[in-house]
Amino acid sequence: MAKGTDRHTELGLKEEDLIEMYRFMLLARFCDERQWGLNRQGKAPFVVPVSGHEAAQVGSAWAFERGKDVFCPYYRDLALALVAGFTPKDVFLGLFGKKDDPSSGGRQMPAHWGAKDRNIITGSSPIATQCLHAAGIALSKKLKRSDAVVGTWCGEGGTSEGDWHGAMNFAGIHKLPLVLVVENNQYAISVHVSKQVAGNVHGRAAGYGMPGAVGDGNDVLEAYKLTKEAVDRARAGEGASLVELLTYRHYAHTSDDDDRTYRKKEEVEEWKAKDPIPRFEEYLRSVDMVDDAQIQQMRDEAKTTVGEAAIEAEAADFPDPSTAYDNVYAERVEVR
Amino acid sequence: MGTSTEKNIVQTIHDTLMDEMKRDDRVIVLGEDVGARGGVFRVTMGFLDEFGEERVIDTPLDECLIAGVGIGLAIDGMRPVAEMQFADFSFPGFNQIVQEAARIRYRSNGDFSVPMVIRAPYGGGVHGALYHSQSVEAFYAHVPGLKVVVPSTPYDAKGMLIQALEDPDPVIYLEHKKTYRLIKGDVPDERYTVPLGKAVIRRPGTDLTVVSYGLMHHFCVEAAERLSGDGIEVEVVDLRSIFPLDIDTVLESVGRTNKAMVVYEDNKFLGAGAEVAAQIAEHAMFELDAPIKRIAGPHVPAMPYAPTLEHWFMPSVDSLEQEMRKLADF
Q: Which of A155, B55, B84, B210 is 20 to 30 A (C-alpha) from B30?
């Protein structure tokens, strides 16, 4: 194919960045496929799929400085969790609810990412609550004169919650070092974005005195570019930003959902044709970074890594019920 | 011996919070009107001048935000003191408090914690009607992960506030509005703590045990004093903390007096006193010479405005005296 235009150099991305980003997208995709397989086998009661969101998540997460910046993700952010430091094995430990699940030691449902040593803040199931925690952490960073930036992610449905508006409002008032990313996949379970948001998501930023950008969330370079601009702005002390990334989930909301009741097959197929992974492969080929053989090799390696991780996690121990009273409080409080 | 100063409760909380903020840079206050106005009850009067806008944060009018931002601050190592202007207004923040603050340590298996104090003026008898009079302790004490305390004296207000600030977990610190200026006492000038989860016997007695907290505690002491003249000696226990609940002190007392009354201002049904009564029944049934008596608010929204209706809602010293006498005579 014809040689493509280099779009990554001006973004400050090197070849090794792109290869790593691609690898994370593959790992996320194969983790997803494997977890669905385990769900069908009856080994994983609950799955939150990521497929379709890989570019939005890897691209936006890549704009942050790991080890310094803080991630407040939502449940769909498997690819983001990988970038922030989860291994595929960690993902499956969580999926099975095993003792060494880094997020919660088997206390929470799968996909409730959190690990202090990776600066991923523990999340819950009620939507967008993490956005206010992110605002509080961003305020703390500002008070400490730290140049760390906080990122928080949610879907477009999350932008209806008061918590999200509160975070936007507070971040706007105090010019917090915060980036709010919205992965707009057009459906909050079954409710279409047209019934969720009047106008559009990024336009809401204006009401909170901050810039709002929108872009193609299936293009990992665009997701990176828009988020990086927001992160740079936050780090420079210029305040918070909103970044809306347009994308689509390939599967149902979760393994307990049936998307055939609310999405047309044609629409799903149309979006699967815009799959972010082949799109990124096309780009990598067009700038002569990889050839077909290398792509196949990377795919094989990622698949093997994921397969082995799932097997290891499945063999790991479950938490002992004798630990179930731990960590309700710092010190156990007896109730008679 | 250190010196002490006579103060009311609101002054004590003001002074304690100011001392703690001077002592520890991590302590900051956030809430509605806590800055220029100094709080609607004057708890943070002068704080803005002393500590500046960074540590005395007038938040937008959004209790969910106050709780949620407080959680973020606490996660990142600060010691936020979040003020809910009235406990009745804390419910927009209910989700953040019970689903987030309370559960963060457990759900992260100890990886994260929320050392935050949420202060909230509560309670009735102040012409506050339906939305400035509520008792909210039962809602929050029901939730594992939260501590809920109700100091009723200036001494405890200071010692328990400092202990709440030192506690590694979220503490709901409830201040009965009617006691703010009504109750005075000697407060040591030096720094001290009072443990969260220890009840205290304020008035020893032999004929029956009365368990209460907040404003009701003071009503109970007054009623007990009246009965003393008639030779009835009522032992009055101030719970001070709803969770952790010091049931051992209660059971020990009931074991001696063999009669138990539980008094609370909240609606009787499923109020905090219901748990106290249940635990007495569960653990001390055979010590009792009479059925456990609960005196509490009626099952109507707390509490109607007109003076006649408010008076009807609140347990009074007169009604408590009467009920105590009946139980003593049982």
A: A155
pLDDT single digits (tens) B28-49: 999 999 999 999 999 999 999 9
Biggest CA–CA distance in chain A, Å, is 74
Helices A276-286 and A54-61 pack at an angle, to 10 degrees, of 60
Q: What is the CA radius of gyration of chain B?
A: 20
B76/A124 Cβ within 8 A: no
Could you give the CA distance from residue A210 to residue A178 in angstroms, rounded to a whole number? 11
CA distance A205 to A201: 8
Nearest CA to B56 among B16, B15, B13, B17? B17
Of chain A, the end-to-end C-alpha distance in Å amounts to 73
Active-site amino acid positions of A? 249, 253, 262
User: What are the φ/ψ torsions at residue A103 (nearest 5 degrees)?
Assistant: -70, -40
Contact criterion met (CB < 8 Å) for B72 and A136: yes
| Residue of chain B whose Cα is closest to the Cα of A319 | B109
Residues B107, A136: C-beta atoms closer than 8 Å: no
State the angle between helix axes of A54-61 and A15-40 in degrees (0 to 180), rounded to the nearest 10.
Answer: 140
Phi and psi (nearest 5°) for A244? -105, 125
Sequence-ordered alpha helix ranges (H) in A8-153: 15-40, 54-61, 78-84, 88-96, 129-143
Minimum-distance CB partner of A136 among B68, B279, B282: B68
Q: Which residues, other chains included, contact B37 with Cβ-Cβ below 8 Å and sequence gap of 6+?
A: none
**One fold for both B4-188 and B200-329?**
yes
CATH T-level fold of B200-329: Rossmann fold (3.40.50)
Tens of pLDDT, residues A29-52: 999 999 999 999 999 999 999 999
Residue contact B64–A114, C-beta within 8 A: no
Mean pLDDT on B53-78? 98
Q: Where are the domains of chain B?
A: 4-188, 200-329
A101 within a domain of the structure (yes/no): yes
Beta strands B241-243 and B147-149, pairing class: antiparallel
Q: Measuring CA to CA, which residue among A165, A170, A180 is closest to residue B58?
A: A170
Which of A116, A333, A334 to mutate to test binding with chain B, by most B CBs within 10 Å of its CB?
A333
Residue range(s) defining the domain that contains residue A227: 9-316
Residue A288: inside a domain, yes or no?
A: yes
Question: Beta strand pairing status for A212-216 and A178-184?
Answer: unpaired
Is pLDDT above 80 for A3? no
Here the CATH number for the domain that contains residue A203 is 3.40.50.970
CATH number given to B4-188: 3.40.50.970
Q: Which of B118, B49, B64 is nearest to B87 (CA)?
A: B118
Say if A274 falls within a structural domain: yes
What is the spatial order of strands in the sheet that B234-238 belongs to? B200-203, B234-238, B208-212, B260-267, B293-297
A2 belongs to a structural domain: no
Q: In which band, very low, low, confident or very high, does the pLDDT at A1 lie, cut at 50, 70 and 90?
A: very low
Locus of tokens 């190592």: B77
Q: Which residues pair with B122 in a beta bridge?
A: B176
Residues in chain A: 336
